[in-house]
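Table 4 source record.
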Amino acid sequence: MTLLLALAAAAGLALPATARAELADISVRAADRKADGKSWRGSGAVFIPIPGMGGVTPQMEVKNAPSMVLCTVTLAGDLACPGAKGRDTRGRLASPCHLSIDCDFMDIDLPPDEAFGLIVISHGMIFTSLVDAVVVSRKKINTRDPAFVSLDEMLRSASERLAPSGSQDERQRRERPFPLKTLDACALSSCSLRQSEWKVVPQ
Protein backbone atom coordinates (compact mmCIF):
# COMPACT_ATOMS: atom_id res chain seq x y z
CA MET A 1 0.00 0.00 0.00
CA THR A 2 2.85 2.42 0.80
CA LEU A 3 4.35 1.85 -2.67
CA LEU A 4 0.94 2.34 -4.28
CA LEU A 5 0.45 5.64 -2.48
CA ALA A 6 3.92 6.82 -3.50
CA LEU A 7 3.31 5.96 -7.16
CA ALA A 8 -0.06 7.69 -7.11
CA ALA A 9 1.43 10.80 -5.55
CA ALA A 10 4.23 10.86 -8.11
CA ALA A 11 1.67 10.68 -10.92
CA GLY A 12 -0.47 13.38 -9.36
CA LEU A 13 -3.32 10.94 -8.76
CA ALA A 14 -5.60 10.67 -5.74
CA LEU A 15 -6.66 7.29 -4.43
CA PRO A 16 -10.25 6.79 -3.27
CA ALA A 17 -10.90 7.00 0.48
CA THR A 18 -11.65 3.29 0.69
CA ALA A 19 -8.06 2.51 -0.35
CA ARG A 20 -6.88 3.87 2.99
CA ALA A 21 -8.40 0.94 4.85
CA GLU A 22 -5.92 -1.86 5.33
CA LEU A 23 -4.40 -3.99 8.04
CA ALA A 24 -3.65 -2.78 11.56
CA ASP A 25 -2.05 -4.15 14.70
CA ILE A 26 -4.27 -3.51 17.72
CA SER A 27 -2.87 -3.78 21.26
CA VAL A 28 -5.32 -3.96 24.17
CA ARG A 29 -4.53 -3.85 27.89
CA ALA A 30 -7.51 -4.61 30.11
CA ALA A 31 -7.96 -3.34 33.65
CA ASP A 32 -7.15 -5.81 36.42
CA ARG A 33 -10.87 -6.10 37.16
CA LYS A 34 -14.13 -5.07 35.59
CA ALA A 35 -15.74 -1.72 36.40
CA ASP A 36 -18.01 -3.39 38.97
CA GLY A 37 -15.00 -4.75 40.85
CA LYS A 38 -15.57 -8.34 39.78
CA SER A 39 -12.93 -10.47 38.14
CA TRP A 40 -12.96 -11.23 34.43
CA ARG A 41 -13.26 -14.94 35.14
CA GLY A 42 -16.13 -14.80 37.62
CA SER A 43 -17.64 -12.84 40.50
CA GLY A 44 -14.54 -12.78 42.67
CA ALA A 45 -11.51 -14.86 43.57
CA VAL A 46 -12.28 -18.30 42.23
CA PHE A 47 -11.06 -21.46 43.98
CA ILE A 48 -11.79 -24.93 42.69
CA PRO A 49 -11.64 -27.72 45.32
CA ILE A 50 -9.58 -30.73 44.31
CA PRO A 51 -10.41 -34.03 46.06
CA GLY A 52 -7.43 -34.95 48.24
CA MET A 53 -6.35 -37.86 50.33
CA GLY A 54 -6.55 -38.36 54.08
CA GLY A 55 -9.31 -35.82 54.49
CA VAL A 56 -7.22 -33.03 52.93
CA THR A 57 -8.89 -31.04 50.14
CA PRO A 58 -6.34 -28.78 48.43
CA GLN A 59 -7.67 -25.90 46.32
CA MET A 60 -6.50 -24.53 42.99
CA GLU A 61 -6.85 -20.78 42.34
CA VAL A 62 -8.05 -19.86 38.85
CA LYS A 63 -6.21 -16.93 37.24
CA ASN A 64 -8.45 -13.85 37.17
CA ALA A 65 -7.45 -12.51 33.76
CA PRO A 66 -9.54 -11.99 30.61
CA SER A 67 -9.46 -14.06 27.44
CA MET A 68 -10.03 -11.33 24.88
CA VAL A 69 -11.48 -11.46 21.37
CA LEU A 70 -11.69 -8.46 19.00
CA CYS A 71 -14.54 -7.79 16.56
CA THR A 72 -15.29 -5.04 14.03
CA VAL A 73 -18.51 -3.33 12.94
CA THR A 74 -18.91 -1.50 9.62
CA LEU A 75 -21.18 1.43 8.84
CA ALA A 76 -23.38 -1.03 6.97
CA GLY A 77 -23.79 -3.03 10.17
CA ASP A 78 -21.57 -5.97 9.21
CA LEU A 79 -20.04 -7.73 12.23
CA ALA A 80 -16.79 -9.71 11.92
CA CYS A 81 -14.37 -11.05 14.52
CA PRO A 82 -10.91 -11.15 12.93
CA GLY A 83 -9.40 -11.10 16.44
CA ALA A 84 -10.62 -14.63 17.19
CA LYS A 85 -8.53 -17.76 16.93
CA GLY A 86 -11.18 -20.18 15.73
CA ARG A 87 -13.54 -21.73 18.28
CA ASP A 88 -12.90 -23.24 21.70
CA THR A 89 -14.19 -26.60 22.91
CA ARG A 90 -17.48 -24.93 23.93
CA GLY A 91 -18.03 -23.44 20.48
CA ARG A 92 -17.19 -19.89 21.59
CA LEU A 93 -14.85 -17.53 19.77
CA ALA A 94 -11.38 -18.47 20.99
CA SER A 95 -8.96 -15.84 22.24
CA PRO A 96 -5.40 -15.63 20.89
CA CYS A 97 -4.39 -14.43 24.39
CA HIS A 98 -5.95 -16.84 26.87
CA LEU A 99 -5.97 -15.53 30.46
CA SER A 100 -3.95 -12.37 29.83
CA ILE A 101 -4.62 -8.69 30.54
CA ASP A 102 -2.54 -7.84 27.45
CA CYS A 103 -3.39 -8.93 23.93
CA ASP A 104 -1.86 -8.00 20.59
CA PHE A 105 -4.27 -8.56 17.71
CA MET A 106 -2.08 -8.65 14.62
CA ASP A 107 -3.01 -8.08 10.97
CA ILE A 108 -6.58 -7.00 11.67
CA ASP A 109 -8.64 -5.97 8.63
CA LEU A 110 -10.01 -2.51 9.40
CA PRO A 111 -13.38 -1.69 7.80
CA PRO A 112 -12.92 0.67 4.82
CA ASP A 113 -15.45 3.22 6.12
CA GLU A 114 -14.55 6.71 7.32
CA ALA A 115 -15.80 5.56 10.73
CA PHE A 116 -16.20 2.06 12.15
CA GLY A 117 -16.66 0.22 15.42
CA LEU A 118 -14.35 -2.03 17.43
CA ILE A 119 -15.45 -4.37 20.22
CA VAL A 120 -13.44 -6.50 22.61
CA ILE A 121 -15.13 -9.21 24.66
CA SER A 122 -13.80 -11.69 27.20
CA HIS A 123 -15.01 -15.20 27.94
CA GLY A 124 -15.21 -16.09 31.63
CA MET A 125 -15.84 -19.45 33.25
CA ILE A 126 -19.59 -19.08 32.66
CA PHE A 127 -20.43 -15.68 31.21
CA THR A 128 -18.99 -13.49 28.46
CA SER A 129 -18.14 -9.88 29.38
CA LEU A 130 -17.83 -6.73 27.31
CA VAL A 131 -14.34 -5.33 27.84
CA ASP A 132 -14.88 -2.20 25.73
CA ALA A 133 -16.39 -0.87 22.53
CA VAL A 134 -15.34 2.25 20.64
CA VAL A 135 -16.24 4.22 17.52
CA VAL A 136 -13.10 4.98 15.51
CA SER A 137 -13.10 7.74 12.90
CA ARG A 138 -10.52 8.54 10.25
CA LYS A 139 -11.41 12.22 10.52
CA LYS A 140 -12.52 14.32 13.46
CA ILE A 141 -16.29 14.08 14.07
CA ASN A 142 -18.52 14.67 17.07
CA THR A 143 -21.16 12.55 18.79
CA ARG A 144 -23.93 14.30 16.81
CA ASP A 145 -22.51 13.06 13.51
CA PRO A 146 -24.89 10.55 11.84
CA ALA A 147 -22.03 8.07 11.44
CA PHE A 148 -21.35 8.07 15.18
CA VAL A 149 -25.03 7.85 16.10
CA SER A 150 -25.48 4.86 13.78
CA LEU A 151 -22.33 3.05 14.90
CA ASP A 152 -23.05 3.70 18.57
CA GLU A 153 -26.40 1.95 18.25
CA MET A 154 -24.92 -0.92 16.22
CA LEU A 155 -22.14 -1.38 18.78
CA ARG A 156 -24.76 -1.57 21.53
CA SER A 157 -26.67 -4.23 19.62
CA ALA A 158 -23.52 -6.20 18.74
CA SER A 159 -22.27 -6.02 22.33
CA GLU A 160 -25.53 -7.47 23.61
CA ARG A 161 -25.33 -10.23 21.02
CA LEU A 162 -21.71 -11.13 21.80
CA ALA A 163 -21.76 -10.50 25.57
CA PRO A 164 -25.30 -10.21 27.02
CA SER A 165 -25.48 -7.75 29.91
CA GLY A 166 -26.16 -9.70 33.07
CA SER A 167 -26.86 -6.91 35.56
CA GLN A 168 -28.76 -3.65 35.79
CA ASP A 169 -25.50 -1.75 36.35
CA GLU A 170 -24.04 -3.19 33.15
CA ARG A 171 -27.18 -2.36 31.18
CA GLN A 172 -27.04 1.22 32.45
CA ARG A 173 -23.34 1.46 31.53
CA ARG A 174 -24.12 0.40 27.98
CA GLU A 175 -26.89 2.97 27.64
CA ARG A 176 -24.24 5.70 27.70
CA PRO A 177 -22.69 6.59 24.32
CA PHE A 178 -19.57 4.57 23.60
CA PRO A 179 -16.25 6.45 23.39
CA LEU A 180 -15.34 8.20 20.13
CA LYS A 181 -11.67 8.25 19.06
CA THR A 182 -9.78 9.19 15.91
CA LEU A 183 -7.55 6.60 14.29
CA ASP A 184 -4.60 9.00 14.36
CA ALA A 185 -4.96 9.57 18.12
CA CYS A 186 -4.96 5.84 18.92
CA ALA A 187 -2.01 5.26 16.59
CA LEU A 188 0.19 7.90 18.24
CA SER A 189 -0.50 6.85 21.84
CA SER A 190 -2.76 4.52 23.79
CA CYS A 191 -6.43 5.49 23.94
CA SER A 192 -8.00 5.10 27.38
CA LEU A 193 -11.49 3.60 27.28
CA ARG A 194 -13.77 2.47 30.13
CA GLN A 195 -12.08 -0.76 31.12
CA SER A 196 -8.98 -0.89 28.93
CA GLU A 197 -6.35 0.96 26.93
CA TRP A 198 -5.96 0.45 23.18
CA LYS A 199 -3.39 1.26 20.53
CA VAL A 200 -4.39 0.91 16.86
CA VAL A 201 -1.48 1.09 14.44
CA PRO A 202 -2.24 0.80 10.70
CA GLN A 203 0.41 -1.04 8.72
